[in-house]
Design a protein that fits this description.
single chain; 435 residues; alpha+beta; four-stranded antiparallel β-sheet; two-stranded antiparallel sheet; 16 helices; elongated
């Protein structure tokens, strides 16, 4: 009990050594005695012990003060209550504003003052409204927090970046390159060496090296150039040159710029396979089949253009995703080659071919009337140029049975008839003048 009373007396003391008033010599001596008595009290010595005296006023060495008990950044209970009160007041102010009004939007998101459209290096950036989607900035490689940060997306190449990173962009929009120079690099990984780039990133010109100091050099399999980690994220894409020359569709690592360019070019028909690699048709049977189907569709096109029912049914829109299929049979896109290798294009194109042939040969009487009869044998059913057992005259487009056409050594009957008609037209007036 005696120890508890001493501890209570020690805690009740309010003497602070840091707030002392100037003392005289006698007072210094008295305070020194007080210090000794305080130390004795902490050691459990009583006032009656011989050789020790303690003053009624016990010093607490400043423990009752709050000089060092509140570090910077520490919120006490009163501070938390004030913060909660301020939050509730802000909520109340926002709720009192008209709902969905501009003033309410400005109160919630002060970044609304930034423009909705920014044009930079042929990029056309639009400010994104989505706040819940988490994206990655293509410039600084940091996460875009939509709730608290403003970010933009290019409508041409889908380049995403913070609003603060817009002025740091150094690469023009890939869409402009696709529009003005829509062609692929047809050499497989045309590497020139890191020394030709002066040991700098091909895009942002940051120092790079193969040892990773100061930054790792990453090679793009499409361009053959080296990039830093901010411009090359180890994205993978199918390389057109490898697909055309080696029929290899294994994705390879490419830079961000190459990935966006390949993504925009994937559906563009810019590959003329017969000129680039004519031997490819000897090794890939699916290409021969696709070429035959495309050739037949081009022969069907004149029927649909002159048929009212086909125009109303919009049959040619079956190929709206591959419009080049109704324009020529030579150009291919990279997506066409990918679908051919996967077996998807052959199935879908066969279904469309069957639908078109059904309309011409069975459903439409007008299209049936435009068929041909073999003038060599004058037997069999009505023939059409897209039938598999027929041959077409290259001069007059007349249709014959294949066997009849190759077995007959004479000229085409229709070509001979048209030639006689032309001669009669030229010779007719002169005969009448002589008469």
């Amino acid at each position: 009990m005696e120890c508890d009373e001493k501890l209570v007396r020690f805690r009740q003391a309010h003497l602070n050594p840091f707030n002392k008033q100037p003392l005289g010599q006698g007072q210094h001596d008295q305070e020194a005695g007080d210090d000794l008595s305080c130390r004795d009290s902490l050691l459990g010595l009583s006032h009656g012990d011989p050789g020790f005296q303690c003053s009624e006023r016990v010093m607490d060495l400043g423990l009752a003060e709050d000089h060092f008990s509140r570090p910077v950044g520490l919120f006490l209970a009163s501070d938390i209550q004030q913060l909660r009160q301020a939050i509730e007041e802000c909520k109340q102010v926002i709720l009192e504003l008209p709902e969905h009004s501009e003033r309410q939007k400005d109160a919630v998101d002060p970044s609304e003052d930034e423009p909705n459209i920014r044009v930079l290096l042929e990029h056309r950036f639009y400010k994104e409204k989505s706040k819940s989607v988490k994206q990655t900035c293509d410039k600084c490689n940091a996460i875009i927090w939509g709730l608290i940060q403003t970010w933009y997306t290019c409508t041409g190449c889908y380049y995403r970046c913070h609003s603060k990173c817009l002025n740091l962009i150094s690469k023009p929009c890939v869409r402009s390159k696709v529009s003005h120079q829509a062609e692929y690099e047809l050499s497989i990984c045309p590497e020139t060496g890191l020394d030709s780039q002066d040991y700098r990133c091909a895009e942002c010109r940051a120092p790079i090296s193969l040892r990773g100091v100061p930054s790792e050099a990453r090679q793009c399999d499409y361009t053959g150039l080296y990039y830093c980690g901010n411009c090359h994220w180890n994205d993978q894409a199918i390389i057109p040159a490898r697909a055309i020359h080696n029929w290899d569709f294994e994705p390879r690592k490419v830079s961000r710029c190459s990935m966006r360019y390949l993504a925009l070019m994937v559906s563009r028909p810019v590959l003329k396979l017969r000129e680039i690699n004519p031997l490819l048709f000897n090794y890939v049977e699916e290409l021969v089949e696709i070429r035959k189907l495309r050739h037949d569709i081009l022969l069907m096109k004149p029927y649909f253009i002159t048929c009212k029912e086909a125009m109303e049914a919009r049959l040619l829109l079956q190929l709206q995703d591959r419009q080049h299929f109704v324009e020529n049979d030579e150009m291919y896109s990279l997506q066409d080659l990918v679908d051919i290798q996967a077996g998807r294009l052959s199935c879908s194109l066969t279904e469309i071919h069957t639908l078109f042939a059904k309309h011409i040969k069975l459903d439409c009487e007008r299209c049936q009337a435009k068929g041909f009869v073999c003038e060599l044998c004058k037997e069999g059913d009505v023939l059409f140029p897209f039938d598999s057992h027929t041959s077409v005259c290259t001069d007059c487009s007349a249709v014959f049975h294949r066997d009849c056409y190759y077995d007959n050594s004479t000229t085409c009957p229709r070509c001979a008839r048209l030639s006689l008609r032309k001669q009669s037209l030229f010779q007719g007036p002169s005969a009448e003048e002589q008469a």
